[in-house]
Amino acid sequence: MTRDLVIGVDASTTGAKAVVWNAEGSPLSQAKSTYPLSTPQPGWGEQNAEDWWVATANSVRRAVQTVDTSRIAAISITHQRETFVCVDKESNPLRPAMLWLDSRAVTEVEKFGSDRVHEITGKPVNLTPAWYKLLWLQKNEPETLERTFRVTDVQGFIVNRLTGDWVTSYGSADPLGVIDMKTFDYSDYLLDIAHLSRQQFPRLAAPGEIIGTVSDAIAEELGLPKNLPVVAGVGDGQSAQLGTGGVFPGTYYLNLGSGVVSGTISDKYAFDKAFRVLAAGVPGKYTFETFIGGGTFNLQWFIEKFAGVDTKALGIELTPEQVLETAAEQLKPGSEGLMALPYWTGALTPFWDHHARGALIGFTGRHGKSHVYRAMLEGIAFEQRFLTEGAESATNTKASEIIALGGGSRSKVWCQIIADVMQRPVKVVRESESTSLGTGMLAAAAVGIHKNIELAARSMSGVSSVFEPQSSNTGVYQELYEAYRMIYPALRSIFPVISGALED
């Protein structure tokens, strides 16, 4: 019997997807189950952690129905980062999980964020890390933390349901903001401030390490082989990096998702406001990452709120996105003088300004929906160039290769704009589910399907297309880029007034 298949589970913000991968990185079967997100107050983001497990179980069960399960060698989990849940001794959630996008801990960020915290964690002071939300719980719900048996990331919660043990990888726990990046272990300094102990967190393992086996009862329930190894995964960003094959310095992955995440791998630890540092999917290495909060989120917002086109009523066999893409493609670079600052969800790297807001500048009577849509595509591309150049300068390295993935990478218009703005080729991954593929690579290396993680990344990844910069466009975009860089500094002092009015 040859065990040459692995299961990669991606428990994202919206649902859990299970994909069965072969040794070449081709998907044989997949299934997805969704779960809701709750916003009980403005700025809050919560989920029922049990939904993560129910969706994962349903997806795995359905995904393996069409494959020879005797060939499945291992399973691994990747997931939405910074999200956590507090559970009791019976492994039951004590309250709804707090998500990465939850922004309630403003006071805690202002009070406890410091250069020392940045140096320890590699995370510039901002609202995303869970540590600040734990401090919020300490102040506002102390009874919750007093009853907490484990504080766990999404992977740790799902692994507990699979195996009965509390264990996760330091690459999964790291985004919570409680890991010392120099040791890949919990920081006693940070835990003490939150009045928590390391015994209240899962045991840490290296990414790609076998951390247990699926229990007999769960294996039977999900249709999995007995004693199936569970392999430690990493957060979805690091997993996506693996999925692109980007495990060598100078290779930048560019995930065009709800947010736009880009990064490269490094052998050495460094920290700077130009990027945030995470434990890479390759043990002992680091991912230097930039982040734009608004990517496809911005585009969907525009379509839903302002530019919806009822294509069915018109008898058009195209989505509203395809209509706008086609229209935007007909416009010249620069959207006839309209520019977009893509800070719909605030500014992250390198400004870390949660007061920042999105802006559209340059409106005239000539502009319509297609101009706004193209300007938003261009604005995100300008911002990505700004972030990439900042990371290159801070690390003294050059981005020799950019590999795009995520839903936005399916837009030929957007990929060409990015190539023209950044003045370098943009490669698009072969597999659309690269995040799940990355955790599948960890599983494949752990059980010997591939010799190591780097070889798994090389063997299981691929490129479907390449967009070369067009010389006829790069000159125009260079001039506009210089103008783009002046927009945020000009508006920075206005944003706190605007955001204050919104909060009131």
Structure characterization notes:
- Helices cover 37% and strands 20% of the residues.
- The strands form seven sheets. The chain has a seven-stranded mixed β-sheet with strand order 17-18-16-15-21-22-23. The protein has a six-stranded mixed β-sheet with strand order 3-2-1-5-14-13. The protein has a two-stranded antiparallel ribbon with strand order 4-7.
- With 504 residues, the protein is of the alpha+beta class.
- The radius of gyration is 22 Å and the shape is globular.
- α15 crosses α16.
- Among the domains are: 5-233, Nucleotidyltransferase, domain 5 (2-Layer Sandwich); 296-345 and 355-384 and 477-503, Nucleotidyltransferase, domain 5 (2-Layer Sandwich).
CATH superfamily heading of one domain? ATPase, nucleotide binding domain
Strand order of the largest sheet: 17-18-16-15-21-22-23
Biggest beta-sheet profile: 7 strands, mixed
CATH class of one domain: Alpha Beta
Helix content: 25-40%
Find the CATH topology of one domain.
Nucleotidyltransferase, domain 5
